[in-house]
């Protein structure tokens, strides 16, 4: 039996979380709308104007539940957690590995190659399912370029060259991503990737989903005793979750990008689900966020076979398996880090 570590998302404005025994009680305007036993949770994510009692924070810390506050756009504003756990010997091994460019390169090249291969898989699925759709020739050309980029990533002599191959692959991928959007509504026109802030509806959904994936990746790192800020591909920067960002690279296309495309192409999202601000930023509305979160959780429950462990498991557990594999590699139990390929 596998237990999928659960996350409680609270999006309702004015919601208040308090402790009720060993349960989280969620109040809105003084009325308890929901309860959730703490033993079922690994993370609580609060959006916008939501608050929590001190007793609830203490309970979360004691139960090993991390709490994250996100802005309405999905940007991490704050995070609290209980006493730090983990194996100090593993963290020292991680520190040595990140300090060695040769070691970092062997891990980072696997991550980038898998990321690009999984982006290519998304393009190939589109070509298989919609061979006569507009832009198919450009999508086919892009997937061929991604095949070359994945191969070159494995042959990169240094991290700078590797990041260059990743950038070239990203350029090819995002250039044709709009061809995968089959919703004719002008509200979902996609002219390329943009962020901080997102300036169109598709980018607003992508940025929101990437923020959720980063939180899951951080939780996966910490659950296996890894330092989420000490990465191999992403450069060190104060406050950046570099290792969490490394791990989520492999899941961007099959998890985040796939959810975004499904929501848009199935018309589960409408133009009214977005708010356009005077600054040019486009953000999901409260109703839009709820729609995305529902699809996000459903996608994470999708089962597939993981080649390294040779078992079927929910997609939401892949990050935890990858964090475990990385920890075993750093401890010397595995000769190499087995990146995850979407098949």
Task: Give structural notes.
The structure is a single chain. The chain is α/β, with parallel strands linked by helices and 343 residues long. The protein has 2 domains: 6-80, CRISPR-associated endonuclease Cas1, N-terminal domain (Ribosomal Protein L15, Chain: K, domain 2); 88-331, CRISPR-associated endonuclease Cas1, C-terminal domain (Four Helix Bundle (Hemerythrin (Met), subunit A)), CATH 1.20.120.920. Helices cover 47% and strands 16% of the residues. It contains 10 helices and 12 strands. It has a 4-stranded mixed beta sheet with strand order 1-5-7-8, sandwiched between helices. Strand 7 (66-70) and strand 8 (76-80) form a beta hairpin. Helix 3 (101-129) runs antiparallel to helix 4, helix 3 packs parallel to helix 8 and helix 4 (136-155) runs antiparallel to helix 5. The relative contact order is 0.13.
Q: Which short descriptors sum up this protein?
A:
343 residues; Ribosomal Protein L15, Chain: K, domain 2; Four Helix Bundle (Hemerythrin (Met), subunit A); 2 domains; 4-stranded mixed sheet; globular
Write the layout of secondary structure elements.
Blueprint: E1 6-10, E2 16-20, E3 23-28, E4 31-37, E5 41-47, E6 51-52, H1 54-62, E7 66-70, E8 76-80, H2 88-99, H3 101-129, H4 136-155, H5 159-177, H6 201-223, H7 242-248, H8 252-265, E9 274-276, E10 282-284, H9 286-300, E11 303-306, E12 311-314, H10 318-331
Parallel strand pairs: 1-5, 2-6, 5-7
Antiparallel strand pairs: 2-3, 3-4, 7-8, 9-10, 11-12
Helix pairs in contact: 3-4, 3-5, 3-8, 4-5, 6-7, 6-8, 6-10, 8-9
């Amino acid at each position: 039996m596998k237990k999928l570590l659960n996350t409680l998302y609270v999006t309702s404005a004015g919601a208040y979380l308090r402790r009720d025994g060993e349960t989280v009680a969620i109040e809105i305007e003084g009325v308890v709308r929901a309860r959730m036993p703490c033993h079922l949770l690994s993370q609580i994510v609060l959006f916008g104007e939501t608050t929590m009692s001190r007793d609830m924070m203490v309970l979360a810390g004691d139960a090993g539940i991390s709490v994250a506050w996100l802005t309405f756009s999905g940007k991490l504003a704050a995070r609290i957690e209980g006493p730090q756990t983990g194996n100090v010997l593993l963290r020292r091994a991680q520190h040595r590995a990140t300090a060695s460019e040769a070691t970092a390169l062997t891990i980072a090249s696997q991550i980038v190659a898998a990321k690009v291969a999984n982006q290519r898989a998304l393009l190939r699925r589109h070509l298989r399912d919609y061979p006569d759709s507009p832009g198919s020739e450009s999508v086919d050309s892009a997937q061929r370029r991604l095949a070359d980029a994945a191969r070159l990533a494995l042959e990169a002599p240094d991290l700078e060259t590797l990041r260059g191959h990743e950038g070239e692959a990203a350029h090819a991928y995002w250039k044709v991503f709009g061809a995968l959007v089959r919703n004719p509504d002008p509200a979902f026109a996609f002219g390329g990737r943009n962020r901080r802030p997102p300036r169109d509806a598709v980018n607003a959904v992508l940025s929101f989903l990437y923020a959720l994936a980063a939180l899951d990746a951080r939780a996966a790192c910490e659950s296996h005793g890894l330092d989420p800020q000490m990465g191999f591909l992403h450069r060190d920067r104060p406050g950046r979750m570099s290792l969490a960002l490394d791990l989520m690279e492999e899941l961007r296309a099959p998890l985040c990008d796939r959810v975004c495309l499904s929501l848009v192409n199935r018309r589960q999202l409408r133009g009214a689900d977005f708010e356009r601000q005077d600054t040019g930023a486009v953000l999901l509305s409260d109703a839009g966020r709820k729609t995305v979160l529902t699809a996000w959780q459903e996608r994470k429950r999708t089962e597939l076979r993981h080649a390294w462990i040779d078992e079927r498991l929910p997609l939401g557990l892949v990050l935890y398996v990858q964090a475990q594999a990385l920890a075993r590699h750093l401890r010397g139990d595995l000769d190499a880090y087995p990146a995850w390929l979407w098949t």
